Amino acid sequence: MYDYDKLIRILDERNILLSVMGKDIGISSRTIAKIRKGEKLSLKTLDKIGAYLGVDSDKLFRVISPNPLLQSLRDEKNNKISGGIYNELQIRMTYNSNHIEGSKLSEDQTRLIYETKTIFTGEALQIDDIIETVHHFRAIDYCIDKAEEPLTQDIIKELHFILKHDTNDSSLPRFAVGDYKKRANMVGGKKTSSPQNVERDIGKLLDFYNNKTEITIEDIIEFHAEFEIIHPFQDGNGRVGRLIVFKECLKNNIVPFIIEDDKKSFYYRGLSNWKTERGYLIDTCLDGQDTIVKLMHTLGYAY
Question: CA-to-CA distance for 135 and 117, rounded, in angstroms?
Fold first, then answer.
């Protein structure tokens, strides 16, 4: 649902009737009815209204999600509210996901970067750890913005680009930032999809997943495991995979899960044994969901 209260408020302040605005800029009565019903308008129409009022079109409305967590994340993000669930998920998800992959930044250092955009430390730090921390914050925002859109290869590649652009990896020969791997790789000593088969394999996985009539948390965990088995990128597969999980949980009104760094051995065991024993990974992810539920309760959010 779309809330056009901001648009109506601007019109009221200027003593302009909605119907008069419609006539002035040549939009149909059907479009006016969509505004009154809270239905989606085209970008072209929104831009036309914005130009008429001298206001950025994205300031004229907000999307109301039936998922209360997603709505809270969007409201806190858009209004730059600190101390809430958006703030905490940014820090905790970024710290844990990056630390699993070898980042040396502590949770306190991650929090400092997020909340003050500065870092003070007496130790030497890898520049990429700092860059990828900032990029992960932006990738979470991207997931929140795109939450309700169907999962596609373009979204998956964009997440990789957001994470890896401007890093040392991006300057390496044949390292494809925002695109699938060019060289074969292995994970945990096991073979992954060959570069020439990645697009096909991801396409098949997306078709299987997106054709489900109702998505459960087990479906999202299954997608995650199969995605990591394909291992489509040269590097960054784990972080992209966990961001996809976050997006898809928000899309399907499921509380997301977070894999904490001290649980990574259980997480890796679950991924490694997925084909023979799915319970390992499912139990680890459900434990990570409990972590988010507890955080929501602590902060006073409904579950």
Answer: 12
